[in-house]
Amino acid sequence: MQQLPVGVAFPFPFNLSLAMIKIATWNVNSVKARLPLLLRWLEEFSPDVLLLQELKCIEEAFPRDEIEDKGYNIAVKGQKTYNGVAILSKSPIEIDLTELPGDREDLQARYIEGFTFNVRVASIYVPNGNPVETDKFPYKISFMERLHNHVKTLLSHEEAFVLGGDYNVIPEERDCYAPGNWEGDALYRPETHAEWRKIIYLGLTDAFRAKNQEEGHYSYWDYQGGAWNKDNGIRIDHLLLSPHAADRLNDVGIDKSPRGWERPSDHTPVWCELETN
Length: 277
What we know:
Elements: E1 20-27, H1 35-45, E2 49-53, H2 64-68, E3 73-77, E4 85-89, E5 94-97, E6 111-116, E7 119-125, H3 136-156, E8 161-166, H4 190-200, E9 205-206, H5 207-211, E10 220-221, H6 227-230, E11 233-234, E12 237-241, H7 243-246, E13 249-254, E14 270-275
Helix pairs in contact: 3-4
C-alpha cells in the first residue's frame, strides 16, 4: 500500500471567519459505490471536516476530483477491497500519521491523523472482531489497546482533538435495539467494553452522550431483516473529544437521512459542532 507523505500541503485556504466548525464521521461502506450519496450529503450538510471509513479502495482509485470540486482538501490511507480511511476538510490538512502506532506489522488501513482548523482529528476504523473464536477478536482488542496507548500520548500534548470513526463498539444497553441479541458479539463483549472504558476513562468525552442521554439513537442498521424500517439499529460510530475539544462542544447529532436514500451505506453520519478559538 502506498504511504501518504507526512506533512502534505493542500490547496484550499483556511477560513478564519468561522465561529463554529462541524466535524462529522461516516462509514460509507465503499466510497465508489456511495459517491452520489457522499456528494449529495457534502452539498446539503456541508461539514467543515468529514472523517470517512471503509473506503474499500486504494489511494489512486479514490474519487478525488469530484470531492475537491465540492471545496474539500483530501487525505487518504487506502487499501484494495477492504478498510480504508480518509479526512476531508475545507481547510488545509497537515498529516501526522497514516497508521496507529504500536504494531509495524499491521498493514491494514484503519487510521489516519492530521491537523486542520486548529484541531487534531483522526479517522479510525476499529476492527469488527467477529467471529470471536478466530484471530479477528484478539486483533480487535490489540488495536484498541494500541489506541489507548496513543490517546495517552495525545493527551500529554494538551490540545484539542477529535477521534472519530466506526469503533465497532456498542457502549451500553441503550445504544442497541435489543441488548440480549448482542450477547457474545464482538461489538458487545465484556472485553470490548473494558477496552472502551479504558479509553474513555483517560478523560475523553463521547460527544453524543455529552448532549443526549436518551436511548434509541443509532448510527448503523443492518441491510438484512428490515432493520432500517423497524429501527433495529445500534450506535457504533463515535466522536471522542479531548478535554480541550469537549470544552468547545456546542452541539451534536446523528443525521439519519442518508440511511434512507437510494443504495445507502448501512451507517449514517454522526457530527459535532465545536466553537473555534
